[in-house]
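Support request, please re-run this one:
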Amino acid sequence: MCSGGFAKCLGISLMPLAIVCVLCNILLFFPGGTTVENQYITEQVWYFGGILGSGVLMIFPALVFLGLKNNDCCGCCGNESCGRRFAMLSSTLFAGVGVLGAGYSVIVSAVAINRGPKCWAVVNDTYKHWTYPFSNGDYLTDKASWSVCEEPAGVVSWHLSLFSVLLVMGLIQITLCAFQVVNGLLGALCGDCCGCCGGSDGAV
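Re-run finished. Output below.
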C-alpha cells in the first residue's frame, strides 16, 4: 500500500475514535445519567481529556492524514516527488501532536479510574457528604463497596465505564499515530509508491 494511502486509512480510523472520546467526556458531566451541580462532578472530568486530548488534538492529525493521499506535490525544485516527501515528513509532526493529546487523555483516565468517582457517600458510618470514598483503585476488585455511593445512582459503573472507554480509545490512538510516525518517515525517505502527477517514485 502507498504511504499516502495508508495514512488516509489511519485518518479515517482516527476520526470516529475522536468523536467517541468527545461524547464520553460530555457524558461524564452527567454522573449516573443525571444532572448535578458543577462542584459535585469528578475533578478529572474538568481536565477535558476526551474533549481536548483525544478529541480536538486528534482531529488535526486525522485531517492531515486524510489529505496526504491526494496531496498536490508537483514542481518542487524540479522534482515531482519532493512535495509529497515533505508532506509525509510533516505528517510525523502532526502524529506527534496526536500522541501527546491521546497520552494526556490516557493519563487523566487512568488517574480517574484509580481515584474513583465523587459521590454522596457515608463517611466512617457517621455522616454523609460529597467525597471520593475510594482510594488506590481498591473498588475495582470489590464491587460490593460500590454501594457506599448512594447518589447519583449508578455513578460508579458510569464513571468506570466511560473512563475505561477513554483509556482504551486513547491507547488505540497512540498506536495509530505511532504507525504514522513510521509511515511518514518511510514516505519521506523512500517516496510514495503511487508516485506524483502520474509518475512513480519507489515503493514503500
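The first strand starts at residue 119 and ends at 123. The chain is about 55% helix and 5% strand.
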